[in-house]
Specification:
heterodimer, A: 185 residues, Rna Polymerase Sigma Factor, Chain: A, 2 domains, 8 helices, 68% helix, B: mainly alpha
Chain lengths: 185, 91
């Protein structure tokens, strides 16, 4: 097997991206990658030649990520989906009319040169959503899945799915309004 | 029975119509409300714009991803950790 000292340069970026895509926290991602390298070093004898070093390291990292997420879920009792729901309620007054009117959008994200910046903001807004809601939105609008497929994958009812899509869209709309279109207001 | 939906209900119907075919009367009431209410009309247009642009998000995220690299400091720290650990292991 290759010398562990070259792991960092050879696989560091890849593992870091892998962790970051799942954890969304650069500091934690770094830590998990480092732990992965050290764990791999200790268990070097168990490395099976059938696998490449990259898949072997990735497998270790995946375990570390799962452990981390489990631990974090135990710690975070209150889910922020409720908070999102409350903030969306605040758009309407008691008789169901708009209290905070949807603003006129000054820019059209269809224009090519604006698109990249718009996508940056959309992505930021999306990562700010509660994890489950963001996931459902991505399955529906990026991967184009039908509601039934999403229900199956996420193990939720159709009604629940529609409600979460409504929340995702409303929250994204507001976030974009404030961070992109709001500039022209 | 067939009361005109208010804005809050309409906003839900707008989103629902993007995921499933609404029953005839609901569709009719939604259209009627939208014809009268410019804010809900805006809401609808904006949701459809978000949908249209979300299709490009995949490629965008990929492009962002390939620009991400492990910070130099972390790289150095990991190299040192590996070096000191492998030293103590072989001893």
């Amino acid at each position: 097997m290759e010398d562990p000292s070259i792991w960092v340069d050879r696989y560091g970026d890849y593992l870091y991206r892998f962790a970051l895509a799942r954890i969304h926290d650069p500091v934690v991602a770094e830590d998990l990658v480092q732990e992965t390298f050290l764990a791999a070093l200790k268990s070097r004898r168990n490395f099976e030649k059938r696998a490449t070093v990259k898949t072997w390291l990735t497998a270790i990292l995946r375990h570390k990520i799962v452990d981390f997420i489990r631990k974090r879920q135990r710690e975070r009792v209150i889910d922020n989906e409720e908070a999102l729901d409350r903030s969306l309620e605040a758009f309407f007054n008691d008789n169901g009319h708009w209290k905070i009117h949807p603003a006129k959008w000054a820019h059209n994200p269809g224009k090519h040169y604006e698109q990249k910046e718009f996508l940056d903001i959309l992505y930021d807004c999306l990562t700010g959503l509660p994890r489950r809601i963001a996931r459902i939105f991505m399955l529906r609008e990026m991967e184009g899945l039908q509601t039934e497929e999403i229900c199956q994958q996420m193990k939720i009812s159709a009604t629940n799915c529609w409600t979460m899509l409504y929340r995702a869209r409303s929250a994204l709309r507001r976030c974009l309004e404030l961070n992109w279109f709001g500039r022209g207001l | 029975m067939f009361m005109m939906p208010n804005c809050k209900e309409t906003s839900r119907l707008v989103s629902a119509s993007m995921d499933r075919k609404l029953p005839f009367f609901k569709r009719l009431l939604l259209r009627l409300h939208l014809r009268m209410c410019k804010y809900c009309r805006r809401f609808e247009q904006q949701l459809f714009r978000i949908r249209a642009i979300s299709r490009h998000l995949d490629q965008h995220i990929e492009a962002l991803d390939s620009a991400i690299t492990l910070p130099d400091e972390a790289r150095k720290r990991m190299r040192n950790a590996l070096r000191s650990q492998s030293g103590s292991l072989s001893r």
